[in-house]
TrEMBL record:
Annotated coiled-coil segments of the chain: 825-852
GO BP of this protein: cell volume homeostasis; chloride ion homeostasis; potassium ion homeostasis; potassium ion import across plasma membrane; sodium ion homeostasis
InterPro entries in UniProt: AA-permease/SLC12A_dom (IPR004841), AA_permease_N (IPR013612), SLC12_C (IPR018491), Slc12a1 (IPR002445), SLC12A1/SLC12A2 (IPR002443), SLC12A_fam (IPR004842)
Family indicated by similarity: Belongs to the SLC12A transporter family.
GO molecular function annotation: sodium:potassium:chloride symporter activity
Occurrences of domain SLC12A transporter C-terminal (ranges): 695-1100
Subcellular location: Cell membrane
Segments traversing the membrane: 192-219, 261-281, 302-321, 327-348, 380-399, 419-439, 546-565, 571-592, 604-628
Alphabetic keyword roster: Cell membrane, Chloride, Coiled coil, Glycoprotein, Ion transport, Membrane, Phosphoprotein, Potassium, Potassium transport, Sodium, Sodium transport, Symport, Transmembrane, Transmembrane helix, Transport
Keyword 4Fe-4S set for record: no
Gene behind the chain: SLC12A1
Species assigned in the record: Neomonachus schauinslandi (Hawaiian monk seal)
Name of this chain's protein: Solute carrier family 12 member 1 isoform X1
């Protein structure tokens, strides 16, 4: 950028909406700048352009400034912290470049804003200067205006959409965000510590013993710890938004897995609300029984209390996450006091009543007796494990509100893993303590003491003075095996344990009531299930899913009223385990795919450990309940199929994509190590369609014999100025590939920019493909307008056929009566769509104006008319002419459209006539055979036509039938044509002569000097010598058309050997005349010529 300090030009300021990059440039010459008079005119500078594409985007102005303004600029790409202006600087004599690198050039320095998503709430998405802007030569005379230095330098202006995003970010600035303690640690601890801790852990120790009980806890912790490590790895591999487990799985494995597990995970959380609330209600009902205060009966009392509890919890949730978080902290405090109360109670000396119920404080004999298992009838290690494992779940409670965390990447790993550690220590501590203090069986009778002289049965209780031997023969009510309220008995203050049970159930219910709507909202926002879009809307500064809250409330109420939770509980546990399994598999899959984008900041994980964790989760599902596991897999499978069928339009860069790429790359490399074999030959085609939507019929017929069997590449050559061609080519690549996908055409799109059409095709023929997946056949449409085409077009057209043969690539030329190019139809359709949009916009404007309240009467009418531009009606003459013209265009377009779709339709019963006149290796026979395997062509039979001698027709027919049977190609009939080489009739020959007449030189009718001059001036014309030399070949083409008219006029498709023009011997115009007369007035024709290498074999 050159800056001229001359004072002959001054740049006025421009409106802010006309520029994108603005800069105030600074002068280091402070002494001179200080002397500038404030009233003096500012210096004038030469206008400088940043490129043709950026006209009016970059505006730079230079104004007087001072030392303080200069000092206010920060290095490292930070914005200027002042709105003052600055002097210009001399880029050749000062050190400003070294002090503010990145502020004096369009090229950008690295900044986080360039890497954000468009919808980022953490800051605006900024567009760096394009490669074109910094690569193209700077143009002159660009208008410049004042602005911020680093906005110009780094190309990160503030367009309207980015301003809108900033505004949205400001709106969300007041949202409540949680740290790792309140947001993750507290929630996970509360969700993991459930009622199991207070009413089932003692029974588990009684059944499994202290040793196996601790093993069960550690085994459960191993599952959750591996899942926690996998969750931490995924959560630290990029910014995490709301959605918890669904978000982690969907962004790792894709929408198919994420969408299926997200729905059942949200449902499981909703039903879990009912489970926890019913647990709370049952405890309350037990208290009511003890005080004889029942309202109706136990079942209905549970429903009443449960319903009231859910309504209260819903109110807390709807009040906002801040209130919900405060409630969680209060509940955690109560829970910690209850646990501490238990540990304190173990050291308080036991009284006689507690001793009769089996509590003797810490005793080595009790510890030794309870260390081993003592399973009752019907129980075993895995059944006890299945009962305990749900107590270890809840590790995703923090991740489920990832959208409400201040820093999910830090909070989720730290809070989740610490919660697992703390809760595991608590579980093990309670298990060991209760196992060392309480015997397995106790009568509860203080009279069952050992009297002196009685024989002791050897039990720990007997040694401590109590005889509980009758519990072996009759059921007892106390002890680890019989009393679920052991912790309440052991504790220092029993009601605190009841408060702990209340806290555990209510906190888990509250966490699930919050998690379900958050996960469900994230699922609905992604629009994977379009019918659920209604629940995506959020409200308030925290984007609360109020609709999801009420849906969760209704589900929870329904299951509370049904009161059949014992049946549904195993399924819900398996739903959670299925999500754990997929999280572990996501971590393994992302690591195995070896994507460069998999860079988790949390490095304490191993892909094989994650895989082991996934397998372990699946095994635990069957251990807990095999039929519930089967139901879970079936539901997930059907949801997976549904999402796969719907194919949601999302691209999250999943590891599935990465692994697909790695697999494809490995397979392609492995394929290169294997030599080609004739048995595995398949047509791999380059199709010169231009844009794939321009010549759909050409693509359809090619796709018919390449679909699911061979490579198909739709190619387009952009001819013209390189800069414009490259820009047009790059802008349309994704759109045209998307068109192929949308129309379910299994093909690739490729394009090149070249100086001429032939050079472009030559590049495609040489460079297309990958390894063994390289094209071996060129498919082109017949040039119907060859007689009116310029000389260069004919030379290019015939030249690419010569090039294909030079590269040993087969050629297929396809001809249909109406031609292939439907660009006119597409143009008319685009114009009609624009007119329809304008009409709808006009109608909307009229409707809005009619509803406006404004000045009425004549003035109001003319005001509206001037806005709508309807004061001047269009002339009737023009409209009638346009109507007549559109009718003709419509009729023409209709025929063209019908012709362009003829290969999409199912071909009825008919024939494909194969005129296999020259042996090209078998491609002429293989293509029609493949067509008969397709659904659209399966009703068509092959008829084979070959040339032969008149006196050997039967012998040659038998020989051809034998060859075809060896090739295992079914055919309906074989015809031996013995009169190919006779002269055509005079009328047909006359048509051919009239066809080539405009392109003949007729040098034999002129003197030698004139003839030589004509040859030099028009070397492309057909000479008499050339025509005479190939007269027999010309006869053959005309005669073949007569035979085709006679035998194959009614065929569905004709496949015919393509005549080859010898280079240097056959002129381009004569060759085009051959192709024209050969295929004139026939059904669709495929002119085929292989590369004369075998593509068929009868060897096994």
């Amino acid at each position: 950028m050159s800056l001229n300090n001359s004072s002959n030009v001054f740049l006025d300021s421009v409106p802010s909406n006309s520029n994108r990059f603005q800069v105030n440039v600074i002068n280091e010459s402070h002494e001179s700048s200080a002397a500038v008079d404030n009233n003096a005119d500012p210096p004038h500078y030469e206008e400088t352009s940043f490129g043709d594409e950026t006209q009016n985007r970059f505006r730079i102005s230079f104004r007087p400034g001072n030392q303080e303004c200069y000092d206010s600029f920060l290095q490292n790409g930070e914005n200027a912290k002042t709105d003052a202006s600055f002097h210009a600087y001399d880029s050749h004599t000062n050190t400003y470049y070294l002090q503010t690198f990145g502020h004096n050039t369009v090229d950008a320095v690295p900044k986080i804003e360039y890497y954000r998503n468009t919808g980022s709430i953490s800051g605006p998405k900024v567009n760096r200067p394009s490669l074109l802007e910094i690569h193209e030569q700077l143009a002159k005379n660009v208008a410049v205006a004042p602005g911020l230095a680093d906005r110009v330098a780094n190309g990160d202006g503030m367009p309207e959409d980015e301003e809108a995003e900033n505004k949205e970010g400001e709106d969300k600035a007041g949202a409540v965000k949680f740290g790792w303690v309140k947001g993750v640690l507290v929630r996970c601890m509360l969700n993991i510590w459930g009622v199991m801790l207070f009413i089932r852990l003692s029974w588990i120790v009684g059944e499994a013993g202290i040793g196996l009980g601790v093993l069960i806890i550690l085994l459960s912790t191993m599952v959750t710890s591996i899942t926690g490590l996998s969750t931490s790895a995924i959560a630290t591999n990029g910014f995490v938004r709301g959605g918890g487990a669904y978000y982690l799985i969907s962004r790792s494995l894709g929408p198919e897995f994420g969408g299926s597990i997200g729905l059942i995970f949200a449902f499981a959380n909703a039903v879990a609300v009912a489970m926890y609330v019913v647990g709370f209600a049952e405890t309350v009902v037990d208290l009511l029984k003890e005080s004889n205060s029942m309202m109706v009966d136990p079942t209905n009392d549970i429903r009443i209390i449960g319903s009231i509890t859910v309504v209260i919890l819903l109110g807390i949730s709807v009040a906002g996450m801040e209130w919900e978080a405060k409630a969680q902290v209060i509940l955690l405090v109560i829970l910690l006091i209850a646990i501490a109360n238990f540990f304190i109670g173990t050291v308080i000396p036991s009284n006689n009543e507690k001793k009769s119920r089996g509590f003797f404080n810490y005793q080595a004999s009790i510890f030794a007796e309870n260390f081993g298992p003592s399973f009752t009838k019907g129980e075993g290690f895995f059944s006890v494990f299945a009962i305990f494992f749900p107590a270890a779940t809840g590790i995703l409670a923090g991740a489920n509100i990832s959208g409400d965390l201040e820093d999910p990447q830090d909070a989720i790993p730290r809070g989740t893993m610490l919660a697992i550690f703390i809760t595991t220590v608590a579980y093990i501590g309670v298990a060991i303590c209760v196992g060392a203090c309480v015997v397995r069986d106790a009568t509860g009778s203080m009279n069952d003491t050992i009297i002196s002289g009685m024989n002791c049965n050897g039990s720990a209780a007997c040694g401590l003075g109590y005889d509980f031997s009758r519990c072996r023969h009759e059921p007892c009510q106390y002890g680890l095996m019989n009393n679920f309220q052991v912790m309440s008995m052991v504790s220092g203050f029993g009601p605190l344990i009841t408060a702990g049970i209340f806290s555990a159930t209510l906190s888990s219910a509250l966490a699930s009531l919050v998690s379900a709507p958050k996960v469900f909202q994230a699922l609905c926002k992604d629009n994977i299930y379009k019918a659920l879009q209604f629940f995506a809307k959020g409200y308030g500064k925290n984007n609360e899913p109020l609709r999801g809250y009420f849906l969760t409330f209704l589900i929870a109420m329904a299951f509370i009223l049904i009161a059949e939770l014992n049946t549904i509980a195993p399924i819900i546990s398996n739903f959670f385990l299925a999500s754990y399994a997929l999280i572990n598999f996501s971590c393994f899959h992302a690591s195995y795919a070896k994507s460069p984008g998999w860079r988790p900041a949390y490095g304490i994980y191993n892909m094989w450990v994650s895989l082991f964790g996934a397998i372990l989760c699946c095994a635990v599902m069957f251990v807990i309940n095999w039929w519930a596991a089967v139901i879970t897999y079936v539901i997930e499978f059907f949801l997976y199929l549904y999402v796969t069928y719907k194919k949601p339009d999302v691209n999250w860069g999943s590891s599935t994509q990465a692994l697909s790429y790695v697999s494809a790359l490995d397979n392609a490399l492995e394929l290169t190590t294997v030599e080609d074999h004739v048995k595995n030959f398949r047509p791999q085609c380059i199709v010169l369609t231009g844009g794939p939507m321009i010549r759909p019929a050409l693509l359809d017929i090619t796709h018919a014999f390449t679909k699911n069997s061979g490579l198909c590449i739709c190619c387009e050559v952009f001819v013209g100025p390189r800069k414009l061609c490259v820009k047009e080519m790059n802008s349309g690549m994704a759109k045209k590939q998307a068109w192929l996908i949308k129309n379910k055409i299994k093909a690739f799109y490729a394009a090149v920019a070249a100086d001429c059409f032939r050079d472009g095709v030559r590049s495609l023929l040489q460079a297309s493909g990958l390894g063994r997946m390289k094209p071996n056949t060129l498919v082109i449409g017949y040039k119907k307008s060859w007689r009116k085409a310029p000389l260069t077009e004919i030379e290019n057209y015939v030249g690419i056929i010569h090039d294909a043969f030079d590269f040993e690539i087969g050629v297929v030329i396809v001809r249909i009566s109406q031609g292939f190019d439907i660009s006119q139809v597409l143009q008319v359709q685009d114009e009609l769509e624009k007119l329809e949009q304008e009409r709808l916009a006009l109608e909307a404007t009229i409707k809005d104006n009619e509803c406006e309240e404004g000045s009425g009467g004549i003035r109001g009418f003319f005001k509206k008319a001037s806005k709508l531009n309807i004061t001047k009606p269009a002339p009737k003459k023009d409209s009638s002419m346009n109507t007549i013209q559109s009718m003709h265009v419509g009729e023409f377009n209709q025929k063209l459209v019908e012709a362009s779709t003829q290969f999409k339709k199912k071909q009825g019963k008919g024939t494909i006539d194969v005129w296999w006149l020259f042996d090209d290796g078998g491609l002429t026979l293989l293509i029609p055979y493949i067509l008969t395997l397709r659904k659209k062509w399966k009703d068509c039979k092959l008829r084979i036509y070959v040339g032969g001698k008149i006196n050997r027709i039967e012998e040659e027919k038998i020989a051809m039938a034998s060859l075809l049977s060896k090739f295992r190609i079914k055919f309906a009939d074989i015809h031996i044509i013995g009169d190919i080489n006779i002269k055509p009739n005079k009328e047909s020959w006359k048509v051919f002569e009239e066809m080539i007449e405009p392109y003949r030189l007729h040098e034999s009718c002129k003197d030698l000097t004139t003839a030589e001059k004509l040859k030099r001036e028009t070397p492309w014309k057909i000479t008499d010598a050339e025509l005479e030399a190939v007269k027999e070949k010309s006869y053959r083409q005309v005669r073949l058309n007569e035979l085709l008219q006679e035998h194959s006029r009614a065929a569905n498709l004709i496949v015919l050997s393509l005549p080859v023009a010898r280079k240097g011997s056959i002129s381009d115009w004569l060759y085009m005349a051959w192709l024209e007369i050969l295929t004139k007035n026939l059904p669709p024709v495929l002119l085929v010529r292989g590369n004369h290498k075998n593509v068929l074999t009868f060897y096994s």
